[in-house]
């Protein structure tokens, strides 16, 4: 029995480059070269292994665009013409090099090679899907699919468009190969949370991700990268092995760069004089690769030595042996580590082997032979076979990830290509609307136009176009293809919607782009209710924009928007919240009367945060557009903070909707100044949002003064409305049995902090004060609740101060655990350096425990020293220790402060805050219109 397994995965994909309208289109040569240099050589390799009795398994991903082109008679005919040209050219090369011994035998070898490739092509009548199917039927290859046109799924706007890409892919595979695929190669390995649900719908069992996709997973997989994990929908995920990737892909350490391998860039299409080579390159005088190359890599300079196939074959054998040695070591190491047979997954682009790395097919041939003859350690396996070995693969939630530069969509979302997405998203939403109305039409012409519109949209979505724009290679072609397909889609959509179908024009487009002849536009149908979602036609309707909304909770903004929105519903508003999607939660749901619309957007990661904000705003605008097309008309937009500012501005101007903004904090205040380009950008976006808004709401007088100063806003444009605490939720703050475990021992007295672990929250000041407090009160226990980037630094500070087990960093805890801490703590401390309001301090006061707060920002508005709490000087550990010791020393005084604090909270009731916010809205919209609407609501509620 083998100690572990090796899973070789080859992804064969090309964009749809069929051009019947013109001969000699350069881009069609991508297909001809791939067939000649990669696909047929690989098929020959696999057939040779079978003929020699070598047992092997390989997984082949054939993209639906490639499958469609390989099955296309026109492209089969043109591929044969290409092969005939290569045979003819190689014959002439034999004659030309007769007196050039260093090249003559190589010319003969090329001629024999091209003859064999042409013979292979003709044996299957030009249909290369047949030998791929043979490999599958012989049990040697597992055939899987990709998205229909290789769309980059994380940047597809609508669930319906993703579903159409997946369903069309599965149907195409089933039509050509007779079986539905078990797995999928996600284009560019692009995954986003929630995609597994759509894969499950199509019966797909697994996909692949780059290594960091699993490394960054929520809940680290138990077996590392050498065993798949499963998503919450039980879809298996195989990670690309870093060792396998490095040996083949690395420009420094990878095998293809060896000096004895064939040089890719020295081709006779560029080296020979025009009279000799002219008939075999492009008729417009463009020199191109022919596939006949006489030089080896030699070195990094321009000097190149002749290529020796024998030397290259020896290197391929050596590299195959080296790879197997590394593979064997990895398998043994992983087997010992995880206690089960591991799988080393090696996914590659198929075109690497033969086209870019000429010796690639030989390397695969030699590697699989070596594995076959040394079966004691490693065997080849397919993903489906491996999944059958064990029943207990660990479950984990995956974040968004891709492969490619930087690993998080950097290639497909840059200034060179980001312009394509608004156009694609508008086309998507229009396609969904048309499918909802016309997918069941009995009108033949309208049905044909609808299906062709879907084809054009899919072709425009191909990830190849954005990739080419980023790579700056055939940029003009990629731009043209994107624009042409979008323009064709718009023309067809106009025909569908008016019912006036130009059959001649339609037939022309069907002939130009006949991909997926069985495509079903019904895949684009929306799964939303067909009824227009207007429950209260006389209610004023509010669109609220916030990047946070439960269960997405990073700071206090999430709770604020949740409480405000549901209390606005109670006083007569119809509220729709646009926010970020959360894995496991529906994109649309109603929560206590609030209509929540979660938009698909990639997760922020490191320096990609600004890209994420750009996507968030783009998706919010598109979602608003869809809601309006569904029949909703919004009276007002309320934006919370700069992250949604661009969407708020666009919605205001595009749809003519008045805008109100709430600024919860400023970049200047958080950082005590503007010190970097990123901070400068954020500061400008904050200013822009306040400039565009008719009214600006602040949570404290401190914040009012801040925005007046930093944004030069007139005072009469500003409204101060505090944050709140919901009285209905206060009972939860006393939940629990009074036990301090597991946070502290029963004799200890908890000094509590709750908040984000960032510089401005001042936890470092609390730690500096701890030794002084513990000296007088050794029974004190400091419990720090929250997460944030400063956590490692604060933990290090606690260790250096010798605080030991007297400080507990809990990280994130549930609301129930936090409430139990608020109910059992002796004192809550909020030592902020900057605090616009301080809602957690209010919650502590509502829980009936005394508070010590910094005399800064909104906290200074809430707490009055010696009446309902105690204040400290910001950043002053001595002042903090003095106030905490006062609470611990005088329990009666502490109780009096706590009781006064509890009474103070009544000022911050959410019903009252909703009424204040309503008055701001009235000010913007005009009292008369809103009063009229509310009277109608009141009358309806009273039964009048």
From TrEMBL:
Pfam families: BE_C, Glyco_hydro_57, Glyco_transf_4, Glycos_transf_1. Residues 554-729 form the Glycosyltransferase subfamily 4-like N-terminal domain. Belongs to the glycosyl hydrolase 57 family. GO terms for molecular function: 1,4-alpha-glucan branching enzyme activity. Keywords: Carbohydrate metabolism. Substrate binds at residues 240, 257, 403, 464. Residues 746-903 form the Glycosyl transferase family domain. This is 1,4-alpha-glucan branching enzyme. It comes from Marinithermofilum abyssi. Residues 8-390 form the Glycoside hydrolase family 57 N-terminal domain. The active site is at residues 188, 349. Residues 424-524 form the 1,4-alpha-glucan branching enzyme C-terminal domain. GO terms for cellular component: extracellular region. One of its GO terms (biological process) is alpha-glucan biosynthetic process. InterPro entries: 57_glycoside_trans_central, BE_C, Branching_enz_MT3115-like, Glyco_hydro/deAcase_b/a-brl, Glyco_hydro_38_N_sf, Glyco_hydro_57/38_cen_sf, Glyco_hydro_57_N, Glyco_trans_1.
